[in-house]
Specification:
MshD_Acetyltransferase, 9 strands, globular, Aminopeptidase, alpha+beta, 3 helices, 176 residues, N-acetyltransferase
């Protein structure tokens, strides 16, 4: 099975909406609103088209990932970072390495765009495979109550979080 990863095009949006909806349909930890979140982010300053990627198999959309701009803020400084939300793969294509390919591709693209940190609220057993660690280890906190093991950070550049601390600030489109 050949998987092609590419930047999302405007004509992909309807298919991406349906894909995300299907991917999260049976997820117990989901609010089943991820597809609407993506639509809101696309209309915001936080949207970075180069970090909105799709996976295709035989010209069929089977996966999607989005990184969008956030900040980490303390009393004195604001630091740019990215939020990973969502990564989605159609159920019949899950556990075939497509999510991994999407994540590796979007991390590489973010690094090329000079981003240094990615934050995710996600599964504590899945994301560490991609070098995500609990954000609290870096003194970076969520702006809401969440299990510390599920709020994670990935340094795209070694020691990128060394001098950064504070609370993550999401764009209003996240409805947090």
């Amino acid at each position: 099975m050949e998987v092609k990863i590419r930047q999302e095009k405007p004509e992909d949006r309807k298919g991406v909406f349906t894909l995300i909806e299907a991917a999260f349909l049976n997820e117990s930890n989901s609010d089943h609103q991820e597809q609407f979140l993506v639509d809101r982010i696309r209309k915001s300053y936080a949207f970075i088209p180069e970090l909105s990627l799709v996976a295709e198999v035989d010209n069929k959309l089977v996966g999607y990932v989005l990184l969008s701009e956030i900040t980490i803020q303390n009393d004195k400084n604001k630091f740019p970072a990215l939020a990973l939300a969502p990564v989605a793969v159609l159920p019949e294509y899950q556990s075939k390495g497509i999510g991994s390919k999407l994540l590796k591709s979007v991390h590489q693209k973010a690094k090329e765009l000079d981003y240094k940190l990615v934050i995710v609220l996600g599964h504590e057993e899945y994301y560490p495979r991609f070098e995500y660690e609990p954000a609290i280890n870096f003194d970076i906190q969520a702006p809401f109550e969440v299990p510390k093991k599920n709020f994670m950070l990935k340094e795209l550049v070694p020691n990128a979080a060394k001098d950064i601390f504070g609370i993550v600030v999401y764009p209003e489109e996240f409805h947090i």
